[in-house]
Every structure is written in structure tokens, then in C-alpha cells.
Write a structure and sequence with these properties.
The complex is a heterodimer. By secondary structure, chain A is mainly beta. Helices cover 0% and strands 49% of the residues of chain A. In chain A, strand 5 and strand 6 form a beta hairpin. The chains are: A mainly beta, B mainly beta.
Amino acid sequence: EAGVAQSPRYKIIEKRQSVAFWCNPISGHATLYWYQQILGQGPKLLIQFQNNGVVDDSQLPKDRFSAERLKGVDSTLKIQPAKLEDSAVYLCASSLQGQETQYFGPGTRLLVL
Amino acid sequence: AQSVTQPDIHITVSEGASLELRCNYSYGATPYLFWYVQSPGQGLQLLLKYFSGDTLVQGIKGFEAEFKRSQSSFNLRKPSVHWSDAAEYFCAVGARSSTLGRLYFGRGTQLTVWP
């Protein structure tokens, strides 16, 4: 069974530029999560989708971050404009609907200069 | 407020020695508890989880963890560490909810294994 796929794996941009990350969850997983992991910290939830609807985006900085999950499968997370403090690893995870175990992708490492 | 504390930022052990990584949590209700491992440049891999029942849970790679409700702890153990266990370990707590799946993570414990 294929795991959670993410791309790109690495991205370097300058502040005020925009960037987008893509995630493809495990087949059949209705729930999708985006986490931000800053160096030296544990992951922090940004947004949770159930199919193509948002369940929890309370920690998403909505003035610059946006996410969508069209058709309830793939998801894209966008940052516009990026700030230095957005440098982090962005992890995507998925789970079966109603199941607590989340499966994580390899992450996208973002460096904002 | 929900939180997870991993008091040890970095632990060094010799190969073959026993290991215990500490995790304490604060949660408003009975939580689900997880341990994940992260190797450099990789995502998080689930080691084990506790939902209910037997408080001693077995996981992959020879790891186990014990849930102690009275101490709000979920410590991870391994009787004999292998060099390949060197990685960062994260404890996480989640809600018993059918919709809200947010996990709260500790800051992680970096494990170094000496040969």
C-alpha cells in the first residue's frame, strides 16, 4: 500500500514570495491533515479536512496561509506572502474516517531567506 | 489546555543498553496516546498507540510503552537499543472524537546511540 506522498521535498524561496505544497493521501483516507514542524519543536496542526470540507483550521494563519482539498483527495497548502518564520517542515498526514491513527508523509522542508 | 511534555531534549545511550523516554501529558479527558519516530529527512512513523485496555502496549521494533493514568505519563521503553534506533522520538496525545483528529505533540527527544 502506497503511503502519503508529498512534493516538493525541499523548497527555498525569498520572503514575500509565494509557495505551494502538494499532498496525496493514502487511498481511501477521508481525513487529511497539514502540520507545521519548526526546528526543535513538535508538529503543530494547521488544518484538518474531512473529505473536501474543513473540520479544524483554528491554527491556520489565514492572512497568508490557504489550503484546499478539491474532490476530497489531493490537497494543496499555499503560503502567500512567505515570512522568515515560515521556515519549517510541512507534514501531511491522513487517516481513515473516524480512525485515530494518522499516517505521515515525508514532509516538505521550506527555507525562507 | 492540552499539552505534552517530553522533559529530555537529548538522550545518549550505548548500543545494547536499555532505554526509557519520558512523556507527560495534560488533557481534559481520557486521551489517545501515541509515540512516533522520525529519522533525518523522513516523516513520522508510528511506533505504538494506546486507546484503552491493557496499559502496557507493544509496538514495532521492540518498543513498548506504559500508560499510567495517576501520573499522566506514557513512557516509551526498549530493553536493548540498536544503533538503528538513533532518531527523534515524539509523544503525542489526541482526542477521543469521531471528527476532531488534532494531535498535540511534545517537542521531541533526540536519541543518540554509541556503538
